[in-house]
Amino acid sequence: MADLNPAVSRETEADPPPWFDLHLFVCTNRRPDGHRRGSCAARGSEALRDYMKARAKEMGLGRVRVNSAGCLDRCEFGPVLVIYPEGVWYRAETREDIDEILAVHVRDKGRVRRLMLTEKDVPPGKG
Ligand code: FES
Fold it and tell me: Which fold has domain 24-117?
């Protein structure tokens, strides 16, 4: 894997090497039906997480970990996921979106601009 963006590195010489190169946190928070913010699980994120885990393994992506996350506080844009250490956020609604994120972002170290959340994607009342 290529070097990660040094601008986001917080490493010190005392740190052990990273156990994983990338963490993909997929929000699987579920709220009751009708909640004003909705939730990622209600929009299908659990199945997308399962698919992402399986595909990452099939693709042999190496030291990459797909994890479930609780609410990431950008519910209105869900289903959302965030990739660290880059801190890049995506809205992924389909298996095809997941395939593209894994291929372009994780494998090829690019970005899937059409699915990225930006600093302009601020939940109501959070700006
Ligand atoms: S429910 Fe997914 S970000 Fe809040």
Answer: Glutaredoxin (3.40.30)
